Amino acid sequence: MISIELVSLIPLGVLGAVLGLDAVSFPQAMLSRPIVASTLSGALIGQAGRGLVMGVALEFFALESMPFGASRYPEWGSASVVGGFLFAQAADGMAGAMTVAVLAALLTASAGGASMVLLRRANALGVRKQQAQSAQGSRNAVLALQLGGMTADLVRGGLLTFLALVVFVPLQRAVTATVTMAPTVSRAGVVAIASAVGLAAVWKVVHTTNGARWCLLGGLGVGFGIAASLQ
Amino acid sequence: MSSRNPETTLPWRVRAAILLRLFAIQGAWNYETMMGNGVAFALEPALRLLPGGHRGEPFRQAMTRHSGYFNAHPYLAAVAVGALARAELDGVPVSQIERFRVAAPGPLGSVGDRLVWAGWLPFSSCVALLAFGLGLSPGGVVLVFLGTFNLLHLGLRIWGLNAGWSQGLDVAATLANPVLRQAPAYVARATALVAGMALPVAAHGIIGPGRVLLGGVLASVATGALIVTLLHGRLEGWRLATLALAAFVLFSMVR
């Protein structure tokens, strides 16, 4: 039973590897953003809609962390595959499913950020090892470093996704079995927290631009109007 | 005075190879040379055109120069790569090339960070969130996001390489272009407007019908956003959210 489940996680590991690679190494087309990665993860098990819902929740958090140069930031590609799968495979209406999936994705994103720091240090080690060859203008040294770094990043994303799923799939089952909170309340709690982070992130980015505050306020007014009309 | 030789050409195959490699410019990013190895990797197809090809001394010297420290915004690094390819093939003095390598990263990083990471990326996210809230299909939302974001992404890479190649080391003036200087402010206003619209609509899309519940959530959002803003610089919002969600799960289990 357990071995069958592990095998079924392999495609997700591959997806996590590819999307983890996109975050920085190749091609940085933002396939790794939660709104894409989580949807693809859900689609892999025929639940693209539920994957998208998780992706939207995680996208609010991702608005806060921009991949500025050498700064440390969460890695959303692999994390969104984990979150998207956890939420997509939970039964519709399962209490706490979204809360646990978002929490698992945030923890994976944090671990992903730490793993990227380790990878960058490993790349630096590679640069030092190839220093003599690089000083000679060796084409092979440059190619080996570049391809080695990308391969390591691919493996990093895949392993991270696979290990996170191995840990969080059974944990989610155990936790959701004991949670009694109504699914709607669970979703509302997650949305409140995620939207607060998203709104603060947007404010941080735009508040120094002339007129942007009024644009934000105007947009909120229109948004509330649309949300009310959709009730 | 221009240092460009109008007779120097870059075959389209080489140009395509550089463009493809630019997508992997951060493939060996590290804390010592940053994207330096990636710059050499992207330039390599052009440097093979130097006298003697990839076994010649000019090729080896150029590879040594370009695999050292370099950092810029990954998309706008295309400008530097194009300019450096032109300078190397034109035989511009090494001292000028070295000066350019020292001077270019600052402006290329600053413009790129403001325009892409702090501007176009959140804008594209918010457009996709709004599309979700308005009921677009999963595939449609993904396409809206990827289409919006990559319009600028691909445009910058292609424009950057061409601008760098055609201007050579004089490309710095291109960055003073009013479009590049003023665009971040326009994008910030557009992001603010779309984000304001998207947040309540997307929140409604996740929660579903329920006016009282939505009202409670939106009041919590305003309070939470205020707390996250006040804590700015001390604790990131997503870390605070992780703690809050963990507490939420524990509370749900024991109550």
Protein model, in words:
- The complex is a heterodimer of chains A (231) and B (255).
- By secondary structure, chain A is mostly helical.
- Chain A has one domain (2-230).
- Chain A contains ten helices and no strands.
- Chain B has helices at 12-22, 36-47, 57-66, 77-90, 94-103, 105-133, 138-167, 172-175, 178-207, 211-230, 237-254.
- Chain B is elongated, with a radius of gyration of 23 Å.
- At the A-B interface, helix 3, helix 4, helix 6, helix 8 and helix 9 of A face helix 2, helix 3, helix 6, helix 7 and helix 9 of B.
Question: How many structural domains does the protein architecture of chain B include?
Answer: 2
> Percent range for helical residues of chain A?
over 70%
Shape of chain A: globular
Number of strands of chain A: 0
Q: Which radius of gyration of chain A do the C-alpha atoms yield?
A: 20 Å
Number of helices of chain B: 11
Termini separation of chain B comes to 76 Å
Q: What ranges of chain B have pLDDT less than 50 throughout 5 or more consecutive residues?
A: none
The helical percent of chain B reads over 70%
Give the N-terminus to C-terminus distance of chain A in angstroms. Answer: 44 Å
Task: Give the count of helical stretches of chain A.
Answer: 10
Quaternary structure of the protein: heterodimer
The overall pLDDT average of chain B reads 92
Shape of chain B: elongated
Radius of gyration of chain B: 23 Å
Counted up, domains of chain A total 1
Poorly predicted runs of chain A: none
Largest sheet of chain A: none
Taking all residues together, what is the mean pLDDT of chain A? Answer: 93
> By helix and strand content of chain B, what is the structural category?
mainly alpha
